[in-house]
Amino acid sequence: MIFSIIKKQIWFNFLAAWLFLIAAWTILIKFIFPIIYSINYNESVFSFIMWDFWWIAHIWLGYSLLNISRYTFYVGVIISIFELFIILIKLYWFFLLPEWSIWNTNWMINKIIVLILFIFIIITLIINKDKFLKKL
């Protein structure tokens, strides 16, 4: 029993760390890298920024997996469903006519990693539904 609880907590910690890493990666490739690139090539600082604020949801969900509350299950499922739906549609459109620029390749790799993460998260939330809802 105790080992099962420890293993679940390690898994939740792993998912939370992955979410924090994805948030940092998103900020890096969508904000910091484009700003540095534009400065290097004497372009407008905002020319290449890919405005995206999903990293805020990723940080919240990561924190929520570390500090399970009454919102973790429901908001986690909602975030996961939206993420999966949006990513699958975007990847579908990308692979219809892929353009392998540095920007699109970075974007596509990010989307595939986030897709895998949110598949793990939705499965974890569903399998552990009772644990999450016990906090209500």
Instruction: Please estimate the helix content.
Output: over 70%
As a percent range, the share of strand residues is under 5%
> Radius of gyration, Cα only, in angstroms?
17 Å
User: What is the overall pLDDT average?
Assistant: 91
- Sheet with the most strands? none
The assembly state of the depicted protein chains is: single chain
Number of helices: 5
Judged by helices, strands and strand pairing, the structural class is mainly alpha
Order of helices and strands: HHHHH
In short:
The protein is mainly α. It has helices spanning 2-40, 54-66, 72-96, 102-127, 129-133. It is elongated, with a radius of gyration of 17 Å.
Features of this protein?
79% helix; 5 helices; 136 residues
Folded structure, characterized:
By secondary structure, the protein is mainly α. It is built from five helices and no strands.
Present the secondary structure layout.
Blueprint: H1 2-40, H2 54-66, H3 72-96, H4 102-127, H5 129-133
Helix pairs in contact: 1-2, 1-4, 2-3, 3-4
